[in-house]
Amino acid sequence: MEYEFIHDSLTGSATARFSMEHEIMGPWLEVEIGKNTTKLLELIKVIDNLKERQTKDVVVNGVEYTLIFSEDSVSIISNANFEQIEHNLENVEIEQGLNTDFDSSAECGIEDFKELLVKWSNFIK
What we know:
The structure is a single chain. By secondary structure, this protein is of the alpha+beta class. It starts with a strand and ends with a helix. The longest helix is centred in the middle third of the chain and has 15 residues, at 37-51. It has helices spanning 25-33, 37-51, 79-87, 92-97, 110-124; strands at 3-7, 14-18, 58-61, 65-69, 73-78, 105-109. It has a four-stranded antiparallel β-sheet with strand order 3-4-5-6. A two-stranded antiparallel ribbon has the order 1-2. The protein has five helices and six strands.
C-alpha cells in the first residue's frame, strides 16, 4: 500500500494520498479521523482486541465510511456501498459478484492498517 501525507501550508489541513487500489483511505482518514487522536486510539484498541482474540469481526460505522475489521484484514467501504452490500448479505452469489469501484472500497492487512494509523497519528501531531 503506497501513500503520502501532505500538510497544506495555506489551510494547515492534513491530507492523505494513496495508490489507486487504496484510494478511498485518503478521504476516510481526512473525514472520519482528521486530527482526532481519540478515534485513532479507539481503532488501535479494536485491532489489539482482535489480535488478542478478545473479539471477532468488528464493524465501525462512520459519517461517510464504514470499517469492517476481521482477524487479519480491514475493509473500508463508502456508506452508500455498505448499504448495498448489507442488503445483499443473505445472497452470497450476489455479494461475491458485487464489483465496487476503487474509490468506494479498499481492503488491507490489519498490520498495515495499524501502521497507517500510527503514521497518521505522528503526522498530525
